[in-house]
Amino acid sequence: xxxxxxxxxxxxxxxxxxxxxxxxxxxxxxxxxxxxxxxxxxxxxxxxxxxxxxxxxxxxxxxxxxxxxxxxxxxxxxxxxxxxxxxxxxxxxxxxxxxxxxxxxxxxxxxxxxxxxxxxxxxxxxxxxxxxxxxxxxxxxxxxxxxxxxxxxxxxxxxxxxxxxxxxxxxxxxxxxxxxxxxxxxxxxxxxxxxxxxxxxxxxxxxxxxxxxxxxxxxxxxxxxxxxxxxxxxxxxxxxxxxxxxxxxxxxxxxxxxxxxxxxxxxxxxxxxxxxxxxxxxxxxxxxxxxxxxxxxxxxxxxxxxxxxxxxxxxxxxxxxxxxxxxxxxxxxxxxxxxxxxxxxxxxxxxxxxxxxxxxxxxxxxxxxxxxxxxxxxxxxxxxxxxxx
Length: 389
Fold this sequence. Notes:
6-stranded mixed β-sheet, 11 helices, disordered C terminus, single chain, 18 strands, globular, FAD/NAD(P)-binding domain, alpha/beta
């Protein structure tokens, strides 16, 4: 990069690399801070991406191919007292509801694209630029150094994730259960959310990704079980929906939270001509029950690039009035998704038959609601309702 950077991006994950590629297409010089990562076990995460995220990555020619991408044709959700929801692509007149994507493969595609982009320079430490975009994740060190508050609600749940091979084929169906489990040392059962997500490519198959949100003590117990005992406990928890199961990867666990930065933009300390913006998990996190985390981060990226592309020619990149356009555009959507996921998590965490009956009634009513159900599904898919443009 012969010229000094226009923008410095701190964090070279999926959100940071996507942003760098989009900005480079606008002929902006980007310094991408790529910190060395320690050797760890295989990454078992899988992201659910909607149509808007897929279109963005396809436009960059970074969308992975099968078997790293698996279409989801249908989603089935079971409550704790007979309630059930069904979402089908056919009913909406679309090919797929969303796509399950292998995290390491997507990261590699983006990393390769970055290396062939002359407007992007990989650096191992932050450099000065008119605009710094922080994409370091929810534990962002830069956000803390900038003094930006991060309002966190800690859920009394940890996510346990792994991959499994099942006796029965998943048929491109994402399955989710809201239920209860007995936790060692606790007299009262605790709420949990179990999701089995189809993996393995276009042809379908027997591989699934697990995200099991459970009480921290239950998570500790599950992580300590031998693989065969863990698989047996999982099969029992999902009612043997896919028959017998066998682990095909290691297990990972992390705490769950709802969080949002108090401000997403600001001036860099000590400089009147340098500003910052937050994006992705550095700005917000939600419960994974709706699978919207990365979709929200990529929506941040798309909006920030749109704002920069549409700016007045005389307005500099560090102009806070410019950056407030991005902040305003994204905060409302992020708050709405946070309210939805937090509300569902809290609703299904309430014990007692009265709450069970209420949840069951609500799920059945929503499943038969027609236009309301269709509108909600379109929002999750990243689509606009007909006639909204």
